[in-house]
Write a structure and sequence with these properties.
With about 110 residues, this protein is an alpha+beta fold. It is built from five helices and three strands, in the order ααβααββα. The protein has a single domain, classed as Winged helix-like DNA-binding domain superfamily/Winged helix DNA-binding domain (Arc Repressor Mutant, subunit A), CATH 1.10.10.10. Helix 1 runs antiparallel to helix 4, helix 1 crosses helix 5 and helix 2 crosses helix 4.
Length: about 110
């Protein structure tokens, strides 16, 4: 349970940064090289690499090196962790709101 929570924390920490979200968004369209990722971000290549390390550690991105080119791709496992966490909370709140709606409907009948 603790390791699952740590994993969820890492995913949301990684997604909490706008630059990392931009990288994930770009990679959701398909694999690309680190240099192509860096170009529109207006930050140094070293900064992009640091962001990619955080994304890799969280399980959101995978990189592979072929010769001098490092290619990045989205890792759906990390997104699934975030999706599952959000779905659990959504389900909880939908149940609570359904109960509140029933309570209010019953109060209107009185």
């Amino acid at each position: 349970m603790l390791s699952q929570r740590v994993h969820v924390d890492r995913v949301f920490h990684a997604l909490g940064d706008p630059t990392r979200r931009a990288i994930v968004e770009k990679l959701s369209r398909g694999p690309t090289s680190v240099s192509k990722l860096a170009k529109p971000l207006e930050i140094t290549l070293a900064a992009v690499v640091q962001h990619l390390q955080v994304l890799e550690e969280s399980g959101l991105v995978r990189t592979e090196k072929a010769g001098r080119v490092r290619t990045c791709s989205i890792e759906t496992r990390g997104l699934t962790v975030a999706e599952r966490w959000i779905d659990e909370r959504r389900s909880l709140w939908e149940t609570r709101l359904d109960r509140l709606g029933k309570f209010l409907a019953e109060a209107d009948e009185d």
